[in-house]
Design a protein that fits this description.
By secondary structure, the protein is mostly beta strands. The chain contains one helix and twelve strands; from the N terminus they run H-E-E-E-E-E-E-E-E-E-E-E-E. Keywords: Biotin, Fatty acid biosynthesis, Fatty acid metabolism, Lipid biosynthesis, Lipid metabolism.
Length: 153
């Protein structure tokens, strides 16, 4: 299966109401899941003359994806997110310096890091011109699809 097809599959599962998906053949095993929490709000009738107790008002499904707590904070600036699941590398090899560090000026298309997925090294490019304000991932950290990685101001 080609990387483009895998990415399309990831997007399709992420956008759907599926909570779990598994695909397996002779050489490939893909397993994806996401948590689904049901939130039900209740309204209390405050009129003492009315004997009804609780009435359901809204039932809403909320999708929760696991993301590092630091990434839940409100970010200012433009956020570069991981386009796939894999391992993040700050440099092209352990003996090379990182592609970028906080305070570096970057331009659109400049390589910020690498995400390795299925033994393929995928360059993560800046989508914006600006200055690296924050690097939200550590070298060799696993990243998820859509996980914020860099904040560019």
């Amino acid at each position: 299966m080609e990387l483009a097809n895998i990415l399309e599959l990831i997007h399709a599962v992420s956008d759907s109401d599926l909570t779990e998906f598994n695909l397996q053949d002779d050489t490939l095993n893909i397993s994806m899941s996401k948590e689904k929490t049901i939130v039900q709000q209740m309204a209390v009738n405050t009129d003492p003359a009315d004997a009804q107790q609780y009435q359901p008002v809204v039932q809403q499904a909320v999708h929760v994806e696991s993301v590092n707590a630091v990434n839940d904070e409100v970010q200012t600036g433009s956020v570069v997110k991981s386009p796939l699941v894999g391992t993040y590398y700050a440099a092209s090899s352990p003996e090379n310096p990182p592609f970028v560090k906080i305070g570096d000026k970057v331009s659109k298309g400049q390589v910020l890091g690498i995400v390795e997925a299925m033994k393929l090294m995928n360059e993560i490019e800046s989508e914006f011109d600006g200055t690296v304000k924050e690097i939200l991932v550590e070298n060799e950290q696993m990243v998820e699809f859509g996980q914020p990685m860099f904040v560019i101001e």
